[in-house]
Amino acid sequence: MQPYERPYPLFSLCGLNCGLCPRYHTSGSSQCPGCEGPGFSDKHPSCTVLNCAKRHGGITYCFQCTDYPCERYTSPSSMDSFITYKHVIRDLEYARINGLQAYREKLDEKVEILKYLLEHCDDGRHKSRFCTAVNLLDLQDLREIKEAVSHAAARRDADLTRTTDTWLDRYADIRGVSLTLRKQKS
Domains in the chain: how many in total? Predict the structure, then answer.
């Protein structure tokens, strides 16, 4: 695959929020630069979605394709444990209807909230959970969670990881969002 760099690698061609992925927020050889970010082709030399996009005229996002939504979106695998796929169509549709800049502003704010949670509330074992929750919960809910966690941090009277987990679970329950990975069937 010919190396190419997207101007905004935090939102992928297929609709995943790369900026909310644990591999994006790690260091070392397992770090992912986001969709077609610097060095992407070295880590993902044969991305089927990128190859498909090239066959369909070099589109930048799947929603720009004449075949969208294709089977990739209409028949998602129930065995995939990567539950952040759950809102891909919703996110692509938001970007299609409201424009990429509007979606980018929303995603950038979510990335900043995630960075705050990772920096102030992660005990070293919650990165994936925080990434999943920030990906799946609505932005307004995340703003409220961050405010509640910030107040707890200011009081210095709480285990911030536990406090954050409690708030994430509370909002997930209210919204009917599962933060638990699906088990792959063997």
Answer: 1
96 CB neighbour count, 10 Å cutoff: 15
- CB-hemisphere CA count at 13 Å for 123? 8
| Mean pLDDT for the stretch of residues 179-183 | 70
Helix, strand, coil percent content, the chain, rounded in steps of 5: 55, 0, 45
DSSP string over 80-104: ---GGGGGHHHHHHHHHHH-HHHHH
pTM over 0.70: yes
Q: Is 135 a member of any domain?
A: yes
- Reported for 155-162, long-range contacts at CB under 8 A and 24+ positions apart, including other chains, are 160/120, 160/121, 161/121, 161/122, 161/123, 161/126
Residue that has been written with the tokens 């077609």 in this structure = 36
